[in-house]
Write a structure and sequence with these properties.
The protein has 130 residues and is mostly helical. It is built from 4 helices and no strands.
Length: 130
C-alpha cells in the first residue's frame, strides 16, 4: 500500500512538472489548483487500474504493457472529458504525456528492482561467509 501511495505521488509530481513545461511552452502563465487535484485523481485511477491489470497475470509482458498503455490512454481521455482538459490542451499532447509517463515509471521500476536484486545478492553473499 505504501509503495502504491509513493508511486501515485511520484507520477503526479512528474505529470504536474510536464504539464507546467507544456503550459510554459504554449504561453501559459499559471496552473489552476483544481488541476493539481484532477491530475492526482487521474493518477490514482490509473495506478489502481494498473494494479488490477497486474493481478490478471497476462501471459506475455508485451501484451501487459500494451494493456497498461491502453488503460492510461482511456483514463486520460475520460478524465479529459470529465474535467474539460481538451479546451486548453490537445488530446494528442495528453496522450504523449501519458506514454512518456508510462516509460518513465517503467524505467524507474526497473532501476528499483535492480537495486533490490543487488541488495538481496549482497545478503546472500554475506550469509554464505558467516
Amino acid at each position: 500500500m505504501r509503495k502504491l501511495a509513493v508511486n501515485i505521488c511520484a507520477t503526479t509530481g512528474i505529470s504536474l512538472i510536464l504539464l507546467a513545461v507544456i503550459g510554459l511552452l504554449s504561453g501559459g502563465t499559471y496552473l489552476y489548483l483544481v488541476g493539481v487535484f484532477q491530475v492526482l485523481t487521474t493518477n490514482m485511477m490509473i495506478h489502481v487500474g494498473m494494479l488490477l491489470v497486474s493481478r490478471m497475470a497476462l501471459k506475455y509482458p508485451l501484451l501487459e504493457a500494451l494493456v497498461d498503455i491502453a488503460l492510461i490512454l482511456v483514463m486520460i481521455c475520460g478524465s479529459g472529458l470529465v474535467f474539460g482538459w481538451f479546451s486548453s490542451t490537445p488530446l494528442w499532447i495528453l496522450c504523449i504525456l501519458g506514454i512518456v509517463m508510462y516509460g518513465a515509471s517503467t524505467a524507474l521500476n526497473i532501476l528499483h528492482m535492480r537495486r533490490e536484486v543487488q541488495e538481496i545478492n549482497m545478503l546472500i553473499v554475506r550469509r554464505k561467509f558467516t
